[in-house]
Design goal:
It is built from six helices and 13 strands. The protein is an alpha/beta fold and 258 residues long. Strands 4-3-5-13-6 form a five-stranded mixed β-sheet, with helices on one face. A four-stranded mixed β-sheet has the order 8-11-7-12. The radius of gyration is 27 Å and the shape is elongated.
């Protein structure tokens, strides 16, 4: 820094006036760093604080709301700020602790952990199927109104599988939406065939509003990931992720299907 801090003699080293000031201020900084370190250590050892979470709008109150409620009861010292948005958030600059997303994600610097997988199926209302007919093979879907989630090229082609047979069919229709709950609602109103998570469709099937289409065929499952900006996680984040992973892992299955 261009200032002499020490006077050296054959017998001793003494601080200059500038050195005394520099030493005193440096000691304050070191003490503040020590206190900050102890506070961070306490945060790492105790589950408390605030969690800021990013989720998709339809990433399902059916599944995650009960998990959050149970986790809150186990860790009453943690508060939550949950943002439902379809956009890709900037986790670091927007100070999100975790983001939960469905489907294969583009490469990024974020740390990803797979929590589960969802199994979508095809559903339509009984009225729609009576009017338009019930498909008996995936190729027949091309002649139907299909409610699509617009995901580029993959969003207009559905892949169905059965006993090693794979059929890809191009679909179209009046509606393309980016919310699975809206797909479910439109399908129950007779607007076409929709690709819906089994859990989200369960109540509609029980109420007679939805019928599974091509029940012996399956669609590729969609993985559910949780993202963080680093692997070094404080207890509040680590506890939340471990809790979700445990609850979504039935009987030790490493790739559970919701």
């Amino acid at each position: 820094i261009g200032v002499k801090l020490l006077n050296r003699t054959p017998r001793r080293i003494e601080l200059t006036e500038a050195g005394i000031i520099y030493f005193a201020r440096s000691r304050e900084i070191i003490e503040a760093a020590r206190v900050a370190h102890e506070q961070l250590r306490d945060m790492a050892e105790v589950s408390r604080g605030h969690l800021r979470i990013s989720m998709l709008p339809d990433l399902w109150t059916l599944v995650f709301a009960p998990l959050f409620a149970e986790f809150s009861r186990l860790h009453p010292g943690i508060t939550f700020d949950i943002d439902f948005s379809p956009r890709r958030v900037e986790m670091l600059s927007e100070r999100f602790d975790i983001a939960i997303r469905v489907g294969e994600q583009p490469d990024s610097s974020l740390i990803a952990r797979k929590l589960a997988a969802i199994q979508p199926c095809l559903y339509a209302s009984p009225d729609y199927l009576r009017e338009r007919g019930t498909p008996t093979h995936p190729r027949e879907i091309a002649g139907h109104d299909c409610i699509r989630i617009p995901l580029g090229a993959a969003g207009v082609r559905w892949k169905l599988m059965r006993d090693g047979e794979i059929v890809e069919v191009e679909v179209g229709g009046k509606f393309a939406v980016n919310n699975m709950d809206m797909v479910r609602r439109l399908a129950s109103l007779g607007m076409g065939i929709g690709m819906i998570d089994q859990g989200m469709a369960r109540d509609g099937v029980a109420a007679g509003e939805l019928t599974k289409v091509l029940p012996h065929w399956r669609l590729p499952p969609s993985p559910v990931y949780v993202f963080t900006v680093t692997r070094l996680l404080p207890a509040k984040i680590r506890s939340m992720i471990d809790f979700m992973a445990t609850k979504l892992r039935p009987f030790g299955d490493t790739n559970p299907v919701i």
